[in-house]
Fold this protein.
Amino acid sequence: MTMVVMEKKKDDREEAAPPPATVSAPHVQYRWCEACGKLRIMPPGDVPCTGASTCASAESLGLPAFEGVHVFREFVTADEEQALLSQMDEWPWKLSQSGRWKQDFGPKVNFKRKKVKVGNFTGLPSSSRDLVARMQALPCLQDFEPVEQCHLDYRPERGAAIDMHFDDDWIWGERLVTVNLLSETRLSFEHPQHEGAQVYVVLPARSLVAVQGSARTQWKHAVHRGAITDRRIAVTLRELGPDFVAGAGRAEEGRHLLDIAHTFKGTPLP
Ligand SMILES: O=C(O)CCC(=O)C(=O)O
Ligand SMILES: [Fe+2]
């Protein structure tokens, strides 16, 4: 059974949504090419990547560099996806912003005051032990130690989406990792100085996307309402930011939070 709990508190992970624009500029859309990591200049369709004749670098298209996206198809099997879903639906979902539902596993963060507390954090869920080990076997995630996991449930009938935003870069480190469950979607990117252009990354069901580099630090990201065609669940894991890593000022706090995260005994925050 799926339960939803009303939440009065604002989800401070997302920036306040701007007022709806009355006239929105048309966007030039570029699809990120999974085969070569450049941007599609040919219609995507089924045209295979042939390098320079189908794809071009962001810079050659007059855009700032776009690098640091990695997509791994079939990161989880269909059976694992079903097992993850059954477990999530046993737990209550909380209403979030923009029609999303969420479940959170992580420390209590005050972004404005730069304070972090254990709060009700009991660790990442048990199912993440294997998933994290599998992530760490990927070259781009070798030393990835997540301290937070967030489940977001998007459904078309609720018009669910997430507005363009940067994830915080004080508490969270460079790599954002999402396992995309149940249906295909598009993760869109926009550079603040080039709002007329968007780059989108296709995320097949059961794929993993890692976002780092300029795609994380220079480009905002969003999931548009139109990109949700069926129920979709994002399982996003985040690592700690530079202040909290070994040798940095708040390393001890960081280690304590990681020790809790890695008990893998967690249930969602109330
Ligand atoms: O749903 C997604 O894949 C992205 C979610 C996201 O950007 C966030 O939680 O900060
Ligand atoms: Fe985000």
The pocket of 2-oxoglutaric acid (ligand 1) is lined by residues 13, 150, 152, 162, 167, 178, 187, 221, 223, 234, 236 (CB under 6 Å). Residues 7-12, 15-22 have pLDDT under 50 and may be disordered. The first helix runs from residue 78 to 90. The chain has two domains: 28-62, 64-261.
